[in-house]
Write a structure and sequence with these properties.
Layout lengths: L1 E5 L3 H8 L9 E10 L2 E6 L6 E5 L3 E5 L6 E4 L13 E6 L3 H4 L1 E10 L2 E12 L4 E10 L14 E4 L2 E5 L23 E6 L20 E4 L4 E6 L6 E5 L7 E4 L38 E2 L10 E6 L12 E5 L4 E5 L1 E2 L2 E2 L3 E3 L7 E6 L6 E5 L4 E8 L3
Antiparallel strand pairs: 1-2, 2-27, 3-4, 4-5, 5-6, 7-8, 8-9, 9-10, 11-12, 12-13, 13-14, 15-16, 16-17, 17-18, 19-20, 20-21, 21-24, 22-23, 25-26, 26-27
Length: 382
């Protein structure tokens, strides 16, 4: 196991201290496994330190904490791994101890192109496989694109929520697919654990609307986490050439994409929408970045820190940054969010997912790429 030691720079710590008076904790990096092939999502097995990890080429892996080995798991769904697609997120079911079920998202072929799928299967560790795969939901319509699948999933209040993407539509106007309530693209959807549409969803009785939608007007949701105290669902989504956002999900909320945005057109560098303003009819982000790529934040995995290993980080939000290759540590007070401290900066890893160890409180991270590590942050030794 490889270990590296780090402290946080004073200027970075200053942004943290804007909302948190605690002194930032130094940390060390431990490399747990190497050579992972395009990993995307991970989840801890309950009552265990073992981790299930997805690979975008359609591979499912288990990191065995005792041996440090990465074991291939059979039975993953067939995926379309082109572009940004593949086998994406994974979470164990709330009743995993009884059911053995794991939920997964992936991109797959449908009429009209590809789309995001949500499904579940039964995990059998002894057999080294998942079986009885059941597709619970397919986002509609299928689109001839290999981008912006979204695909993060969380559980809350007996339901499963999934964030989707806008499939990279470039018609920045009111006819954009993220503003179209007949489509679940560019939305958060809410389902029962069996994949049915709950009666309490906001658009169930709206003619022509997709009843699974919980919120809409999103661009590409690749981060979701449930606040451990309030139960609110927080997410982060990619903007267009900057304009990345952290949002708190509201039932029936319209988050404005692409009619209100802080980014600019990738192709021209020109502003294409008014920025979010109070009273514009859209839900304002809790935090956002401005236009351009100098200091934007293309997000990936998200987790709330509630462990004991880093006491100064209690209640902080962790979000991976893909382009600038660091793990953001955000101080949060209510819905107020401070600029991030940059963990893992300078290591060269695009951060794909992050999780907090349920038993040790360490911070586990997978990088993005063809030959990348699983690592964790642990408190630095005195």
């Amino acid at each position: 196991m490889k270990t590296r030691a780090f402290t946080m720079a004073g200027t970075a710590a200053a942004s943290l201290l804007a909302l948190s008076p605690a002194q930032a904790d130094p940390y060390e990096i431990e490399i747990l496994a190497e050579g992972l092939d395009r990993p995307w999502g991970m989840t801890f097995l309950p009552d265990s330190d073992d981790i299930l990890i997805t690979g975008r080429r359609g591979t499912l892996m288990l990191w065995d904490a005792d041996s440090g080995e990465v074991i291939d798991i059979a039975g993953a769904p067939d995926v379309d791994g082109r572009g940004q697609g593949g086998l994406l997120d994974i979470e164990v079911a709330p009743d995993f101890a009884e059911s053995g079920l794991v939920y997964m998202t992936w991109s797959g072929a449908v009429d009209g192109g590809t789309t995001t799928h949500l499904g579940r299967a039964r995990f059998d560790r002894a057999a080294g496989e998942v079986s009885d795969l059941e597709v619970l939901f397919q986002v509609s319509p299928g689109i001839d694109s290999q981008a912006h699948y979204g695909a993060r999933i969380v559980f809350q209040d007996g339901h499963v929520f999934m964030g989707t993407g806008d499939r990279n539509f470039k018609n920045f106007g009111p006819d954009h697919i993220a503003q179209d309530l007949s489509s679940e693209n560019g939305a958060v959807i809410r389902l029962t654990l069996d994949g049915a549409v709950p009666d309490g969803n906001p658009f169930v009785e709206v003619e022509g609307a997709a009843p699974a939608i919980w919120s809409y007007g999103h661009r590409n949701i690749q981060s979701m986490a449930v606040h451990p105290e309030t139960g609110e669902i927080w997410l982060a989504e990619h903007g267009e050439a900057g304009g990345d956002e952290i949002n708190v999900v509201q039932r029936g909320g319209n988050y404005g994409w692409p009619l209100a945005a802080f980014g600019v057109d990738y192709r021209t560098g020109e502003q294409f929408a008014e920025v979010h303003q109070p009273g514009d009819g859209f839900v304002m982000p809790a935090f956002h970045w401005g236009p351009g790529r100098d200091d934007h934040f293309p997000p990936s995995g998200m987790a709330w820190y509630e462990g004991e290993a880093f006491p100064d980080w209690q209640g902080h939000l962790l979000v991976g940054n893909l382009f600038h290759r660091y793990l953001g540590l955000f101080a949060v007070d209510g819905h107020e969010v401070a600029a991030p401290v940059r963990l893992l900066e300078g290591q060269g890893w695009r951060i794909r997912d992050v999780a907090v160890g349920p038993n040790d409180g360490f911070i586990y991270v997978i990088a993005d790429g063809d030959d990348v590590p699983l690592l964790r942050l642990v408190p630095a030794e005195d």
